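User: Please fill in residues for this 227-position structure.
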């Protein structure tokens, strides 16, 4: 168990994401990280240990912007380290994940055979590369995430950013919780209600097998199967 927080809206979201991650600390974690779209690029910062370490790293490497995603990791594949901490990046994609990918060996072997270079020992990085592959073949982020997850077996809650679609976050879930918070011109997501409760009381639970497009105007929810 660990935590995800996301924000899309007009405000810079770094403090809000760190605050949300603090409210999820009770779930346990060994490292933490953020990916923030600064209007041009996605910037990532990760650190091992307590959230205070991430806050200290932010002083040296400040991040600014929106949308953004934050994560606290409880390592299942790959030791706790900065390179194994989330978010994981593949080309224009940044992704955070709660859960375990059961068919990770098979998927990783396929990707390595296709020439993909891995920078971590996590199961999660596989999903980032799968989404990148779908995006490269012309799919917009929502469809790219849907197609990537179609080959993934296991438990997941994911939140994904695309450098070239800076107005949105795509989230999806299977056996790991995710809630959506609807604000006034801003939209939130998190692993649990307390993370975003200070910002909105208007919440939806993402159901099993659902994928959602989060923008400043709200959430468009579909099934992962596309029906
Ligand atoms: N399995 C992933 C990893 O080891 C995610 C763990 C989690 O849920 O924090 O990085």
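Assistant: Residues filled in for all 227 positions:
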């Amino acid at each position: 168990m660990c935590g995800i927080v996301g924000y899309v809206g007009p405000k810079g979201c770094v403090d809000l994401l760190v605050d949300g991650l603090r409210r999820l600390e009770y779930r346990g974690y060994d490292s933490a990280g953020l990916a923030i779209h600064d209007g041009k690029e996605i910037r990532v910062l990760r650190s091992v240990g307590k959230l205070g370490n991430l806050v200290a790293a932010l002083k040296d490497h400040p991040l600014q912007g929106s949308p953004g995603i934050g994560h606290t990791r409880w390592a299942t594949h790959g030791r706790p380290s900065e390179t194994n901490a989330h978010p994981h990046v593949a080309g224009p994609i940044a992704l955070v994940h709660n859960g375990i990918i059961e068919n990770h060996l098979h998927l990783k072997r396929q990707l390595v055979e296709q020439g993909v270079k891995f920078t971590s020992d996590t199961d999660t990085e596989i999903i980032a590369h799968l989404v990148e592959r779908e995006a490269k073949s012309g799919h917009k982020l929502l469809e790219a995430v849907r197609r990537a997850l179609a080959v993934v077996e296991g438990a997941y809650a994911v939140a994904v950013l695309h450098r070239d679609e800076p107005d949105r976050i795509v989230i999806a879930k299977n056996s790991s919780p995710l809630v959506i918070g609807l604000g006034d011109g801003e939209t939130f997501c998190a692993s649990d209600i307390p993370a975003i409760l200070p910002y909105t009381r208007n919440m939806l639970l993402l159901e099993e097998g659902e994928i959602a497009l989060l923008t400043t105007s709200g959430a468009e929810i579909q099934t992962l199967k596309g029906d």
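For context: The chain has five helices and 13 strands.
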